[in-house]
Automatic annotation (TrEMBL):
Plays a role in synthesis, processing and/or stability of 23S rRNA. Belongs to the DUF177 domain family. GO terms for biological process: ribosome biogenesis. Signal peptide: none annotated. It comes from Novimethylophilus kurashikiensis. This is Large ribosomal RNA subunit accumulation protein YceD.
Amino acid sequence: MSTPVLINTLEFVEQSLEIHDKIRASDLPRVQEVLFSGRGDVEYRLVGSRGSRGKFYLQLDLRGTLGLMCQRCLNGLDYPFEIVRRFELVKDESDIPDSDLDDDDVDYLVIEPRLNVTDLVEEEVLLALPMSLRHEDGCSSGDGAPKERKPNPFQVLEGLKTGNKS
Ligand SMILES: [Zn+2]
């Protein structure tokens, strides 16, 4: 385990600081859990900035490649990703607007004297991982992964109907 990176978020944006680093997937236990190969790393860059009207922003850029599993052939699949997340800092939870009314571009973070950047990176990587991942150019495994495993659209509709029953 590497030492967690802690920042004082308010200080960080007030001074327009910036940090970047590379974290091995093996140092992100919850990401590690979903990995097929255990391989992969995440590069991140965190930038603090002041917006107009006294607003404070943190921007988190993430990129890397993770060894995930193809849901069709159950073999390894390298998943490259690039994510940009923007957070507005707020004093406390009550300052967070109703998420339904807000646009999806900005998220909110409560000001913290000791924000664990490693945790934040881990969280955002997990959120960005696809629910169902497949080899885009078709699976190449020789074990005859059946193509018919593709869900029957009628069954899917059926599932939706029953799922919505109240
Ligand atoms: Zn596959």
